[in-house]
Every structure is written in C-alpha cells, then in structure tokens.
Design brief:
It comes from Paenibacillus rigui. The two termini are about 20 Å apart. The protein has helices at about 1-10, 40-45, 50-60, and strands at about 20-25, 30-35, 70-75. The chain contains 3 helices and 3 strands, in the order H-E-E-H-H-E. The protein has a single domain, classed as GMP Synthetase, Chain A, domain 3. It is of the alpha+beta class. Strand 1 (about 20-25) and strand 2 form a beta hairpin. Strands 1-2-3 form a 3-stranded mixed sheet.
C-alpha cells in the first residue's frame, strides 16, 4: 500500500526524491501521511481536490483485502 502511494505521488510531482509516505497504524485503521516538496502540494491535490480524491479511491480499493479502514492525508 505504501509503495502504491509512493509510485503514484512520484509520477505527479517535480521533486520525486522528496516524496515520503509514513504509515500510522491504529486498532481499526491505517492512515498514510503523504509529504511532498512545498511546491508540489498543489499538484498532488489537484484542481478542486480531484487528484487527491482519486488517490484516496485507488488506495481504498486496494485495501479491500485488509479488515482495516485506510485513509490518505496530504501533509506539507
């Protein structure tokens, strides 16, 4: 899951070497915190949040096998 987010984010940004994904696991959920270069935050979010929403949809679909809730947060 972490690798999936990393690959997608690196394809979107101008500074792929500064893409970092941190997993915060709880009893019922896993939250992935995506941090990118400050200039690339807009590219990851997209117009009206469309790219961020699509990224969250892909990750949620890939997480169906796990019994935990998965979310993605974009941190600057």
């Amino acid at each position: 899951m972490k690798d999936l987010i990393t690959v997608i984010a690196k394809a979107l940004v101008d500074h792929p070497d500064e893409v970092q994904v941190k997993a915060v696991e709880d009893e019922r959920s896993i939250t992935f915190e995506l941090s990118v270069h400050p200039d690339d935050v807009g590219k990851v979010i997209g117009k009206q949040g469309r790219i961020a929403k699509a990224l969250r949809t892909v990750v949620t679909s890939a997480a169906v096998k796990e019994s935990k809730r998965v979310s993605v947060e974009i941190v600057s």
